[in-house]
Amino acid sequence: MEKIAIISDIHGNFSGLQTVMTDIEKCGCNRIICLGDLVDGGDYNDEVVRFLRDNHIACVRGNHDEFNDLNLAKDVQDFIDSLPNEIVELDKFYTHISPRIKKNTISNPVEAWNVFDEISYRIVFVGHVHVPLIFGEKCEEFGSSTVYEFNYGEPFHLDLKDRYIISVGAVGYGRDRIKKLRYVIYNQTENSVEFRAVDGELLPLGFWAFF
């Protein structure tokens, strides 16, 4: 059984990352993928990047990794510069903002429809939004998509006849007033995703950075 923990938007929150790593280990995940924005927000940018690098965690580059005014250590900056914009594994696509050519934030069902209309991957995992979301392609309304509800800590089973965009939430801070560290576990064998909400230290930005 392969269980992939998908984390994103750490923003230098090393304490939060350590807490999430403990939960990932408890859940028995085989792999970890990080969807970017490793830095820019907290005080421990170098520590976050070195931890991910030294533990061979696959990462993509986020917009804050690419554009910031931080004075990062050279080895840290070199690692960030080496990161790809996406990871593709068969019918799954992992990226920070969007798989579209036009990188709009995927935070509503209309933009999700635009993604489904432009790409053919069955499952797209994104960060950037700082809010956990599930969009499905199947929808009764043209030009839109379905927003699915889920329960934290419970598997959400994916329909093999549908396609999905999964916004995995953030380790650094949320934008929806839920003061938890959030990430996703993708169970490839059971074809499900499980959103995790973990008690831990958030960045101060999380208290006012709402939509």
UniProtKB/TrEMBL annotation:
Residues 3-116 form the Calcineurin-like phosphoesterase domain. InterPro entries: Ap4A_hydrolase, Calcineurin-like_PHP, Metallo-depent_PP-like, Pesterase_MJ0912. Pfam families: Metallophos. Gene3D superfamilies: 3.60.21.10. It comes from the Bacteria. This is Metallophosphoesterase. It comes from Floridaenema evergladense BLCC-F167.
